[in-house]
Design brief:
Elements lengths: L7 E9 L4 H18 L29 E6 L38 E7 L2 H14 L4 E10 L12 E2 L5 E2 L9 H7 L12 E10 L1 H5 L3 H8 L36 H5 L10 E2 L2 E7 L2 E12 L6 H11 L6 E11 L9 H6 L3
Helix pairs in contact: 1-2
């Protein structure tokens, strides 16, 4: 999460078909071992009990390209199947339906999530492929989406890109080298097994680019609340300037319109609510045209004080809603990272 966002993402939600806790623990142990190898640019050998499974080789001797592998657990994983009901974190609750939603079940939910990011699409594909091969017979893919980001703008502490509507994305993210801000915004607190982890929300959002392209730039800027070229808020300043929600235009109207996206999403208007946005664009062939969109991903210490208040306000009156539609939605608990000799299964099942 605190690695500057890579160029490519492959994210999948999985439903667990394993029949008992031992199978789920084995899967998480296998994934932990494989992730350690893959992120160091090494092939994944066959587990002792699966001699036919060998690394497929498409990564060859290539660099790992800043590969990261993140896993997470959906609310349904904590039902009666695996004895995890008492381990379910309180903030991990199914998301409500919002006003602009046109949710399609095929793009919602999941017992597990695998988020694989790298600067090379084939490296990401290779890692994702190895992890799914290790899980054969234990999971099914519920939904999967590849994605890309534009050239990085800014520095590694606060990497930015432009979204498919042409505007800067992630301007108000906390800096990745600001430990105090990350502790407040991203990392889960407390003393339970989720301490130091985070909560991921994914929203598959269609972007109606054809209609957007017909909107004059000055109107686009009022919808977003920022200058399209510089990224500065319409209240003035530069890309990094704070929003001045009290500023007025020459005609006396709010400089940042009342229904603009950045105003409605601002911490100032949502009781201090903040999130770490880490989204990827997608472009899928969908005859007779191309379907463009954003796999919106955000991390936070608690969705009840992060994403939820922001999205409730946006869903009611965001001017951008005319040009977008939310078709997928999911939430996952992201466990703390593991060190050498540890496994993802230990924290989930409370093993020492």
């Amino acid at each position: 999460m605190v690695t500057p966002a890579q160029a490519c993402q492959l994210i999948s939600a999985l439903d667990v078909t394993a029949t008992d806790a031992a199978e789920l623990r084995r899967l998480l142990d296998d994934w932990t071992a494989a992730a350690a190898l893959l992120t160091n640019g090494k092939p994944v050998p066959a587990p002792a009990d699966r001699l036919a499974l060998t690394d497929t080789g498409e990564a060859g001797d290539a660099s790992p390209s800043r590969l990261t592998i993140t896993i997470g657990y959906g609310p349904r994983l904590f039902d009666a199947r695996f004895g995890l009901a008492r381990r379910r974190p309180v903030p991990l609750a199914e998301l409500p339906r919002f006003g602009n939603d046109n949710l399609q079940p095929a793009w919602c939910g999941g017992d597990l999530v695998l988020q694989v990011c790298a600067d090379d699409a084939q490296i990401a594909f290779h890692a994702h492929r190895q992890l799914l091969r290790l899980s054969a017979g234990l999971v099914t893919v519920r939904w999967s989406q590849s994605g890309f980001r534009g050239p990085q703008l800014g520095d590694d502490a606060k990497p930015l890109t432009r979204n498919l509507f042409g505007f800067h994305d992630g301007v108000r993210n906390p800096a990745l080298d600001d430990s105090k801000a990350l502790n407040n915004v991203v990392w889960a607190g407390g003393t339970d097994w989720m301490a130091g982890g985070s909560y991921l929300i994914t929203r598959r959002i269609l972007l109606f680019t054809d209609g957007w392209d017909d909107v004059p730039d000055d109107q686009q800027q009022r919808i977003i609340g920022r200058d399209k070229q510089s990224g500065a808020p319409l209240s003035g300043g530069s890309l990094t300037s704070s929003l001045n929600l009290a500023a007025t235009a020459a005609d006396g109207s709010p400089a940042i319109p009342l229904d603009s996206h950045v105003r409605l999403a601002s911490a100032e208007l949502n009781g201090g609510a903040q999130i770490l946005r880490r989204s990827y664009a997608f472009s899928d062939g969908s005859p007779p045209g191309i379907q463009a969109g954003q796999m919106f991903c955000c991390f936070q210490s608690d969705p009840r004080t992060g994403f939820l208040p922001i999205q409730r306000r946006l869903s009611r009156s965001d001017a951008l809603n005319t040009h977008t539609q939310h078709v997928g939605s999911a939430i996952f608990a992201i466990p703390p990272g593991v060190r050498a000799g540890q496994s993802w299964s230990a924290a989930l099942f409370g093993q020492t």
